[in-house]
Design brief:
The chain is of the alpha/beta class and 269 residues long. The protein is built from 11 helices and 8 strands. The protein has 2 domains: 5-166, 3-Layer(aba) Sandwich (Rossmann fold); 176-268, ProC C-terminal domain-like (ProC C-terminal domain-like fold), CATH 1.10.3730. Helices cover 50% and strands 15% of the residues. The longest helix is centred in the last third of the chain and has 22 residues, at 198-219.
Amino acid sequence: MSHPYALAIIGGGRMGEAIAAGLISSQALEASRIVVAEPSAARREVFERQGVAAVADGHEIAGQAEVVLMAVKPQVFDAVLVHVADELSDDAIVVSIAAGISTARVESHLRAGIAVVRVMPNTPAMVGAGMAVVSGGSAASDEQVERVRSLFEAVGSALVVDERYQDAATAISGSGPAYVALVIDALARAGVAQGLTRDVAQALAVATVSGTAELLAATGMHPEELVDAVASPGGTTIAAVGALEAGGLRSTIAEAVAAAVRRAKELGA
């Protein structure tokens, strides 16, 4: 079946915006091949400025795209999906990016045989640096899962994982940009406390986090190996690492990830 759009995004929030912007900037999809449904006129204007068609009601566009991306909050997910379900074509691929919502739950609202793929992306997709984890539902073929994976790989990296790992992945990569942003802000504020200007302190913090991530990715070095390489005996780094360990940095991060996993399970219940 021929569709006028390659991708319909149901929900024009920040994540929908990030995915659309990333696909367009990477030239994976032309803006004319994307359509968005969003009740807020102000949010529709954001997409229209990118050349993306936008309508108020997902019911209008659900049957017009090859891939239908459900980008709405978990709290309203079921109601919105039910609203558009009858319009979906039999060959559509329904992609859910709602935290905690299983493929089985999505499938329960659809006609038998419609493919469902669950994805947890993250906001760095807006600049082509996203990380997404992808899991296929019971009716999704390997080819359909790969189609979705390659779509998200156009805005960063994308891995196929068994669905039982989705909540953990949500807690690390889906929510992770917020944790990293907090670390960057903490570093910048600490720099200001030591006399640096805010712009200099933030530039140092952002570049250090970005560069460290690139180094680990490029070399495959274990993070602890990098700590040892930077921390010379009796030096500044080992003193700082000791303070971080004493403050419970590792345990606090572990608790944060566990809290996110628990919340994902609550949202999916």
